[in-house]
Give the backbone structure.
Amino acid sequence: MSDDREPSADPAATGADHGAPAPGGSRARGMVYVLLGILYLLHNDLWLWDDGRLVAGLPVGLVYHVAFCAAASVMLYLLVTHAWPAHLDGQGEEQP
């Protein structure tokens, strides 16, 4: 089958902009990486190991990890939207 579309002037579509982040700029990308580092440091809650309190009927450590999972989900969204390399968009997708 032939492709009747005109060639795109978008550098990301032609592969000329290797390694460039998705929209958002380098400041947003840097902030996402800083937040990722903070999230990494907080992934183990060593300060709650001996805490027997209950929050909403659940151990406080479990509540912490539920909140951590939510924060990790938000972090993954931010990484994809602000730090994803533009040259990877659309690769490997074939239209039938």
Summary: The longest helix spans residues 60-82.
